[in-house]
Amino acid sequence: MKNKLLLIILDGVPYRNFRRLFGNLEGWVDSGDARVWTQRAVLPSISAACYASIHTGVAPAEHGCTGNGNVFRLKHKDVFAQTRAAGGVTGAVAHSFWSQFFNRHPFDYVRDIEYDEPDSDTINHGRFHTMTGYGLVNQMTPSDVDLFGSLTNLALRFGLDYGMLHTCTLDSMGHRFFHDCQEMDHACAVMDEMLAPFIPKWRAMGYEVIVTADHGQDERGHHGGRGALQQETALYYFGDAEGPSEDTVIDQLQLAPTILGRLGAPIADTMQAKSFLK
């Protein structure tokens, strides 16, 4: 493949929290090692609908996932499938919704929690968690450093061309505490510190890296509707491609064709948005 890329999705981080609280990411912007833009989520700006749109490049009104209670095996071509069609190796460390959307539905707690399937048409190497029992008191989220370590393990062992990671920690914290509070400031700082050592490792391994979120959250910890706090997040890019001016707002539907373009994989006809990197 032309390039290798890792997509890191930190669920539920509004733009202002990225820019205010992620000191390591912002430091790399200052040094010129990263670029940052605003990214605007699809509507509804709810997690599952956004996951589906990020990888298919089509809106929820087209792919049909209208929310977290409506998860199924998607029919549209996606980033994993297009990468595989080009001969690339794919991996995912993520919530089980991703496995259901892009590999198999329903999710089997034994079969699908961890799999290595070199001949899969979508995800070759999957490490998933379900957050079963999730609530405000018990978030049921794995430690993020464990997830970052798992993705790095897959990349080293299997030579991933495309790998994605998704963690719900900050989304869950935001629903519990809302975003303008000491607990959320600390949670964002911890995430930034856990993530930071892995980015130089991934770059040294030859990967371009995108760090972003699926959506934001408003003052009451809500998302799903319209509005800057709910829809807008940041997107950080580590790599050598040329991007748009810093004031550009990236449509979430641009992610799929952009990733495939960087990998050198075919962009599906259904992915109509334009790549933002070249």
**Domain unit count:** 1
Helix content class: 25-40%
CATH superfamily: Alkaline Phosphatase, subunit A
- Order of secondary-structure elements: EHHEHHHEHEEHEHHHEHEEH
Q: Given the helix and strand composition, which structural class is it? A: alpha/beta
Q: What is the number of helical segments per DSSP (H or I, 4+ residues)?
A: 12
Largest sheet: 9 strands, mixed
Q: List segments where confidence is low: pLDDT < 50 over at least 5 consecutive residues.
A: none
Strand content: 15-25%
- The first-to-last residue Cα distance is 16 Å
**CATH class (first level) name:** Alpha Beta
Strand adjacency order, main sheet = 4-5-3-6-1-7-8-2-9
Using only CA atoms, what is the Rg?
A: 17 Å
Can you summarize this structure?
This protein is α/β, with parallel strands linked by helices. The chain has helices spanning 15-21, 23-31, 47-56, 60-63, 79-85, 96-102, 144-158, 169-177, 182-195, 198-204, 228-231, 255-263; strands at residues 4-10, 35-40, 90-95, 114-116, 125-129, 162-167, 207-212, 232-238, 249-251. Helix content is 37%, strand content 18%.
What does this 3D model show about the protein?
The chain is globular and about 45 Å long. The chain has one domain (2-261): Alkaline Phosphatase, subunit A. It has a 9-stranded mixed beta sheet, sandwiched between helices. The longest helix is centred in the middle third of the chain and has 15 residues, at 144-158. 37% of the residues lie in helices and 18% in strands. It has 278 residues and is an alpha/beta fold. The protein has 12 helices and 9 strands. GO terms for molecular function: hydrolase activity.
